[in-house]
Amino acid sequence: MALWLPNRIIQATLLLCVAIVSLTLWTALHQPWLGLSLNLSPETQAITLVGIHPAGPSRGIAAPARLAAVGSVVLEPDDLVEEPDMFESYEQTIRFLRRQSAIANLLRQPDVSLRLAGGASGAADIVAVVKPASRPIGDLPAAFWVQLVTGVGTLLIGVFVLALRPADLATRLFALSGAMIALSALTAAVYSSRELAIDGSQFRILSALNHAGSLGFGMAMISLFLIYPRRLVPLPALWIVPAVFAPWLAADILRLAPTQTIGSQLPTLIEMLLIVAVVLVQWIVNRRDPRARAALAWLGLSVIVGAGAFVSLVIAPILIQSVPAIQQGYAFGFFLLIYAGLSLGVARYRLFDLSEWAFRIGFYTGGMLLLFAIDAALILLLQMQQATSLGVAILFVGFAYLPLRNTLWSRFVARQSLADHEIFRSVIDVSLANTAPERSARWRALLDKLFDPLAIEESGEAVSAVDVLDEGVELLLPPVADTSALAIRYPWQGRRLFSTPHQDLARELVRLLRYTEESRHAYERGSREERNRIARDLHDDVGARLLSGLYKTEIGDTHSVLRDAIADIRTIVSGLSVERPVLGDVIAALRHESGERLGAAGIDLHWPIAANDDSVTPLDYRIYRCFVSAHREAISNVIRHARARNVEIRVSEADGLLHITVADDGIGIDPVYAAGSPSGHGLRGIIQRVGDIGGNAGIRPQRTGTAVEITLPLTVCHLVDSRPDAHLDAADREKQTPVFEG
Amino acid sequence: MTLPSIPASRRQVLIVEDQADTRAWLGQMVRSAFKDADIAETPSCAATFAWLKVHGARMAANSGAVALIDLGMPDGSGIDIIRELNARYPAILRVVTTIYDDDRHLFDAIAAGAQGYLLKDRHPDTMVQYLYRIDQGEPPLSPAIAHRMLQHFTQIKRQTVDPDSTCALTAREVDVLRLLGRGLRVVEAARVLGLTHHTVAGYVKVIYRKLNISSRAEAAIEAARRGLT
Known about the structure:
- The complex is a heterodimer.
- Chain A is an alpha+beta fold.
- Chain A has helices at about 5-30, 90-105, 140-165, 170-190, 200-225, 240-255, 260-285, 290-320, 330, 335-350, 355-385, 390-410, 420-430, 435-450, 490-495, 500-550, 555-575, 585-600, 620-640, 670-675, 685-690, 725-735, and strands at about 30-35, 35-40, 45-50, 65-70, 75, 110-115, 125-130, 135, 455-460, 465-470, 475, 485-490, 605, 645-655, 655-665, 695-700, 705-715.
- In chain A, strands 2, 3, 4, 5, 6 and 7 form a six-stranded antiparallel beta sheet that branches. Chain A has a five-stranded mixed beta sheet with strand order 13-14-15-17-16, with helices on one face. A four-stranded antiparallel beta sheet of chain A has the order 9-12-11-10, covered by helices on one side.
- In chain A, a hairpin with a 4-residue loop joins strand 10 and strand 11.
- Residues about 725-740 of chain A have low confidence and may be disordered.
- Chain B is an alpha/beta fold.
- Helix content of chain B is about 55%, strand content about 10%.
- Chain B contains nine helices and seven strands, in the order βαβαβββαβαβααααα.
- Chain B has helices at about 20-35, 45-60, 80-90, 105-110, 125-135, 145-160, 170-180, 185-195, 195-229, and strands at about 10-15, 40, 65-70, 70-75, 75, 95-100, 115-120.
- Chain B has a five-stranded parallel beta sheet with strand order 2-1-3-6-7, sandwiched between helices. In chain B, strands 4-5 form a two-stranded antiparallel ribbon.
- The longest helix of chain B is centred in the last third of the chain and has 32 residues, at about 195-230.
- The radius of gyration of chain B is 18 Å and the shape is globular.
- The relative contact order of chain B is 0.10.
- At the A-B interface, helix 17 and helix 18 of A face helix 6 of B.
């Protein structure tokens, strides 16, 4: 359910933990207290007073001493046992509990008489009378705190994982196991830290809960490994586990089992062995999935080491009639190992499909706790310092407390939001980045700033449109800005959900980005086409000319070839230096140049000024080049071959076409020359070059001399570039089907 | 390079050019144009100014002195040299050598006082012809430069209130500029206008000078304005 936002679940659990801790503490401290520190000495098996609380009810007594009896009850070594299920038989346990009730009854009286035995020197027994008081919190032993912290810790970690994946059965089982350990540890904390005795029936309830917790942990863990990383059994088969162990637990609580060892310790051991077995089976089954194996290795190892340490150090010795190697209270700490190892598993091996981003929620929760701690500290501080003047208090609040609180608040709680114009600019920044990785990074940064999610990950599936899933927990984005499809989860650190306005905003962003991307592509394509054209001109025209100059044997021929090449470069440079050459200007330049060239060869040029000299028709670069080159070539041919005296040139513009006629009165055309000179230039070159841009060229013999007639299209839509251009096609093809790197 | 002591009658030519090959080639071309010329060569702006300090006055005193100035120098622009020659030694004929005849720099050079230009990639014989013509006061004018001049003078006309200003063009001069702007050569323009070749060429020379005057006037106004503010 989407209502179960992660931070809400965690906050609820925190409150629950506070309640549980309070309850545990209350239960532990609300026992009659004598202010004694009792120990069972291993050599004499006697209950010894090793310490007296200086402010406790027994402060008059001298330590060490042997405590022989309380009131009328003579104490036995077993009375101090930490864990009653260490007894082999139920009869022993029943007897123990009865004795506990008796002692507890005596302790509830206003006056308690303690009989302290004389030392080995044979001194007389002393009887001391003490008035029991309430236990101070500082008197609780270390083992209590270890168990309390373990219980709270395992519960919180289990719930933390659950909060992030509430619907996953594996995480539910994991959280359940954490709760079970908490149950087991907290109840044990109460009765194992007792000074001497607590009421038998209370004890029995706590003990039963403790057993339920430890068996429950085992059941949850076995079930977990039966389905994670890979489901080994069909779901209904999971019920077999509780079907086996729940009756066993009932038998233990109701004391139906033959011995307590069989009823209490054995199932725990068997559960442990089953856990190991199932983990091994998972290991074998997942031998081809390295990721599953990594996750399994980490979790499995943590569980086996953590639980296994507890079992082997505490349970197993009991089974073989020996004493536990370490105090059970401390041994509980091993369970914390499991859950600590879990965090590393999540971070490194994507345990439960979580990743580092899962920790960000802990960051937020920690921040909130820090805020409350600061507020609480303020209250405490002001209460303690009652003599402080109002002025000092106000100064402190103003200069220390409030700024600190504000910093923490803005760091952890306040949501960064972006104004509209900032969003717009950020979108522009994304598409104007120079390289694809940079665009992708900026896009992700924008999403992070806008939605402040716990996780931005690549979506596994194909996404074609913006979509909100999971009732507002997840936002899907299609591929854009050189990034693959993204899934954004838990916006605003899990505090809010995606709703329709956010979806609309995301749609707008994607649309804007796509629009700017298309513009950029078009621009890049145009710029690339331009470069290709220039490259082609340099390559085909200038390069070819220079090459031909290399092969001339006469230095004069070489010179004229070089001059032609310089003229070509001049044309290219002129064509590039303006946006678009204007027809009128091009005609003027050609008239000037042709006049000079023909004049130097002793030929008269007749090219009268006509209407199109004022033409402002812009010429596409390709048309301009073709016009100039063809014209030059025609003039060169007249100079070289025609032996003419006059040349007449006409240029006219009609119906989007440019008509050029170069007529000379020379010796006329010879088919040999029409075929073109060996260098590739010549009239054949004109015809080919003009044809390449969709124009026409022809040679018409006249009564005297020849006329070269050229027709060129004036606009690009008439232009048909039939020249194969491998670079252009390939690049264009690339842009048709975008492929984004993730 | 410095010249040895020379008799006053020989024509003196200064070639300002940083490329050694071009320098040599220009020198050959000048020699075939003016057989008895004494040719000095300087490779940089600094060298040119230094040379002028020593020999400028004597060169200007001789008739027919010509300076061929390349615009693209490594340590400055040839335009500065043209300005200096125009100011100090106006008797020396100032000719720009360039590759492009539609370049912005060429226009600026003429505005600074150049009296003609030579295109460096032409055949030496062609260049000799052009050099002769410039020497006789018939400088060339490409369509692009003619256009720019028209634009420039139109702008001047709009800005000044004084119709008698010496830098305004006469109607005839405007006609010449228009025709040359269309690509006609001087011969053809003369034919169209019904004038002699010599007259039209003279107009071109006047237009050159007026451009120089008007741009100097512009600079003066600008300097005055700056000085006032």
